[in-house]
Amino acid sequence: MYKTYIMHYQPLVERYNFVINQLYSNEISNFEFITGYDREELNQSIIDKFYAQDRSLHKKCSAVSMRQGENYEYQEMTLPSISLNIKHIEAFKKTLEQVEEYSLLIEDDCRFLQNKIDIEEIILNAPEDMDVLVIGGAFDHNICNYISEHQGSKDSDTYRYLKAAHPSTNTTSSILYKKSSVNQILTHLIPFCLPIDWQLNHICNEAQLNVYHLYPYISTQGDFRSTVND
Q1: pTM
Q2: By residue range, what is the domain housing residue 209?
Q3: Is 227 part of a structural domain of the chain?
Q4: Distance between CA 105 and CA 78 in Å, rounded?
Q5: Which member of 7, 67, 146, 200 has the greatest number of CB atoms within 10 A?
Q6: Is 207 within a domain?
Q7: ω before 167 within 30° of 0 (cis)?
Q8: How many whole angstroms separate alpha carbon 32 and alpha carbon 96?
Q9: Is 226 within the bounds of a domain?
Q10: Helix extents (H) in the chain
Q11: 18 and 227 in contact (C-beta within 8 Å)?
C-alpha cells in the first residue's frame, strides 16, 4: 500500500542508526534510503539543473508561506538545503515508478511518538480526496489554519484529519503522498528556488492539492542540530 523513502545525508551515521531504529520499532519494512546528491557531490552543472536563482520567481514562490506583515527578503539557498530538495525530487521520481499507491517521505531525524504505528490504517481511514497527509512535524497543529475536520471511519476513531488552508505544511519531516498527486508536485518542483517546506507550500497552492494533517500527530523531529544552513 505504501513505500517509505528516507532523505539521508550519509556522513551523519548517528542519524542513520536513529532512523533505522525508528523504522524497525514501527514495523516499517518497505523502505529505501535516498543518499545521492550529498552536498559534497553537487557541482555547478547539477545545481543549475535543479535550482533557479531567479529573484522574481523566488518572490512569487515565497508569497504563500510568508506571514502577514512579514517583509520579503531574497535569500540564496545553501548547499545542504539544495541537496535536501534534490533528494525529495529523487524520492518523488521513485514514487512514480513504484507499485504502491502511497509513499511516505521522512527525513533522517524523524522521530515517531510511539511504537507500532499502523500507517496502513491511517491511509485506509483518510478522506477520499486526500492528496497529501502531514503526519507530524517540528511544530504544533497551530502552524496552519484549517478548513474542515474529518473523522476516521466507523471502525476507527483514533485519528482525525484536518484539511489545511494554504500554506499547508509543517516542515517536511514526515509526509504521506498519494501517487496520483506526485506528478503535479514534480511539475512545480523543478526548478526550485526555496527550501523544500516553503517550496512545497507554493506547489500545493498552485496545484490546489488537498493537504490534510493527522490529529494527533504521530511523529516529530529528533533532537539533532539542523544542518541545512551549514
Answers
A1: 0.94
A2: 2-221
A3: no
A4: 21
A5: 200
A6: yes
A7: yes
A8: 14
A9: no
A10: 13-25, 44-50, 55-62, 79-97, 119-124, 179-189, 196-206
A11: no
